[in-house]
Specification:
- The protein is mostly beta strands.
- The chain has 1 helix and 6 strands.
- It has a 6-stranded antiparallel β-barrel with strand order 1-2-5-4-3-6.
- A hairpin with a 4-residue loop joins strand 1 (11-21) and strand 2.
- It is flat, with a radius of gyration of 15 Å.
């Protein structure tokens, strides 16, 4: 707990930009994520290996363990370009409807 009684947030927000792609092909198993506050390739080094959560609402009330949400977990693999975008692999490929959506970049596991 923080000193003022508020819980500590263990994630940073990110946005899904799309899939890794070339001019005529795209690789659906690698997603491109823009992490909030990360604007250079050097800044992405801290996030390599961190877990990512793509959270969606479940259509079934009280699905697994009574939760109303589903989570697709992934991992930051490497940087993509020079502007703070990272490549990520998820347990299940992200659906096309998720492009433009939000993810949570967890601040664990730590590599320090």
């Amino acid at each position: 707990m923080a000193r003022d009684g508020q819980p500590v947030r263990l994630y940073v927000n990110g946005a899904i930009l799309g899939y890794q792609r070339g001019l005529r092909t795209q690789n659906n198993s690698v997603s491109l994520i823009k992490i909030k506050g990360v604007d250079s390739k050097a800044d992405t080094d801290f996030y390599l290996g961190k877990k990512i959560a793509f959270i969606t609402k479940s259509s079934v009330d009280g699905g697994k363990n009574g939760s109303k949400y589903r989570v697709n977990w992934g991992k930051v693999c490497r940087a993509h370009g020079a502007n703070g975008v990272v490549r990520c692999r998820f347990a299940r490929d992200l659906p096309p409807a998720s492009i433009g959506g939000k993810v949570r970049v967890m601040l664990y596991p730590s590599r320090i």
